[in-house]
């Protein structure tokens, strides 16, 4: 039996480039423009959909190369969290699973390769992020800044907040309402 009306979730890879300068943690962000999605918002410097037949690590390395002209060894990517999210648009592919990966080592100097999709690229202290930041990415950045994030989180779904798996009583669920 062939299933043609199966629910689909779109996977994406996000690379959080991090460095330490004079004891301060910094993240590399790009200012989106001309894409029709979250234009004029700051976002992770490299991110994009996972292509068919590609692992999330391969997608992260490809996006970094395509968007920033840097080379990443997949072994230098550290998983931070997987986020199941929705924008509640009702679109057939509204729900996403985003894989956030940290990178502290790469070859080359990051620079914008697609200026039609990003207006700026800058390092920001993790404790002094610009505004506005894409909301679900800010959710991750704020938790990293606060000391950590659960391995799996959700964002944009209605309902009660779920306690952290760490038992801290914190919540890693964000309601869109």
TrEMBL record:
Its cofactor is Mg(2+). InterPro entries: NUDIX_hydrolase-like_dom_sf, NUDIX_hydrolase_dom. Keywords: Hydrolase. Residues 8-146 form the Nudix hydrolase domain. Pfam families: NUDIX. GO terms for molecular function: hydrolase activity. The keyword Hydrolase applies. This is ADP-ribose pyrophosphatase YjhB, NUDIX family.
């Amino acid at each position: 039996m062939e299933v043609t009306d199966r629910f689909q979730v779109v996977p994406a890879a996000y690379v959080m480039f991090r460095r330490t300068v004079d004891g301060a943690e910094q993240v590399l962000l790009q200012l989106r423009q001309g894409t029709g999605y979250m234009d004029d918002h700051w976002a992770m410097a490299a991110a994009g959909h996972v292509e068919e037949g590609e692992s999330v690590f391969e997608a992260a390395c490809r996006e970094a190369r395509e968007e920033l002209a840097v080379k990443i060894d997949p072994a230098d990517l550290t998983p931070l969290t997987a986020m199941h999210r929705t924008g509640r648009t009702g679109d057939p592919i509204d729900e996403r699973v985003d894989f956030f990966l940290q990178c502290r080592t790469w070859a080359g100097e990051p620079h914008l390769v697609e200026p039609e999709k990003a207006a700026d690229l800058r390092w920001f202290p993790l404790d002094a992020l610009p505004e506005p930041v894409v909301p679900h990415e800010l959710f991750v950045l704020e938790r990293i800044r606060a000391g950590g994030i659960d391995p799996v989180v959700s964002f944009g779904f209605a309902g009660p907040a779920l306690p952290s798996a760490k038992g801290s009583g914190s919540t890693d669920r964000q309601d869109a309402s």
